[in-house]
Amino acid sequence: MDVWRSRTEIPPSMGRRAVVMTMGALHDGHAQLMRVARECVGPSGEVVATIFVNPLQFGANEDLAVYPRTLDSDLRTCEVAGVSGVYAPEVTDVYPDGECTIIQPGPLAEILEGASRPGHFTGMATVVGKLMQITSPDVAFFGEKDYQQLVIVRQMVADLNFPVEVIGVPTVREPDGLAMSSRNRYLSPDERAWAASIPRALEAGTKESTVASMIATTKECLDPHVAVDYVVVRSPELLETVGPGPGRLLFAGHVGTTRLLDNWEVDVRAV
């Protein structure tokens, strides 16, 4: 497995190339993206992983300085998962002239997580666009746990005519159902137990038939120690008008000081 620290070191693709973009601190959710990517491109294709903690998507009071950097173990995870090469640059390689030109993702970036974290999706879209240009993939894989991110990336790729197929991969979960996240390591043992109520609550919400009952049941089933930012049901494209038909039940909130996200697919059977 090759490791590239500069974009100039990345060779042209010799076959179908997939990319998995990460900020490191890898867990089995990331590894699953890499395994799915390897299955997609086959033995003759290439899987490129990027490991880059992007400063542009952190807010003023967020955890850029303490975000875990675990490059050695991350590289081992990539190799076991079938990655061909890893692009792990310094900030100056991705932003050689500073943070000048940016990608504004539009209205989708101003709701839900965008309302809670102003500027986050501008930073995300900008670095995803740059990393797509640097790695030249045919296909890119993103986890469904960060569902709004997935929708925004798909919209950006379509709007800017990037020749990249974007594929979402179902959320990988811990044995108790908690969505895998690099931020889970911040949870104390008590907080970890309280956080396990999030997937249970969402699962209970999916058994309801209306948007209102899905939201109400989810909130009722959360542990009292979970501070809710939002629980909403949106269309698969994140539109407010939903159903009858498929939708997404989305949660965001805090357990202690740790912000957690999750979402489940739902079937809205009555309005």
How would you describe what is shown here?
- Helix content is 33%, strand content 22%.
- With 271 residues, the protein is of the alpha/beta class.
- It folds into 2 domains: 2-169, HUPs (Rossmann fold), CATH 3.40.50; 182-264, Pantoate-beta-alanine ligase, C-terminal domain (Pantoate--beta-alanine Ligase, Chain: A,domain 2, 2-Layer Sandwich).
- α2 links the parallel β3 (46-51) and β4 (85-87).
- The model has no long low-confidence stretch (mean pLDDT 95).
CATH superfamily of the largest domain: HUPs
CATH topology of the largest domain: Rossmann fold
Q: Please indicate the count of domains.
A: 2
So what's the overall shape?
globular
Number of DSSP helices? 9
**pLDDT average, as an integer?**
95
CATH architecture of the largest domain: 3-Layer(aba) Sandwich
- Span from first to last CA? 52 Å
Number of E strands: 9
Main β-sheet, in a few words?
Answer: 6 strands, parallel
Q: Identify the strand order in the major beta sheet.
A: 1-4-3-2-5-6
What portion of residues belong to β-strands? 15-25%
Helix content: 25-40%
Could you write a compact summary of the structure shown?
This protein is of the alpha/beta class and 271 residues long.
Characteristic terms for this protein:
271 residues, alpha/beta, Rossmann fold, Pantoate--beta-alanine Ligase, Chain: A,domain 2, 2 domains, 6-stranded parallel β-sheet, 3-stranded antiparallel β-sheet, 9 helices
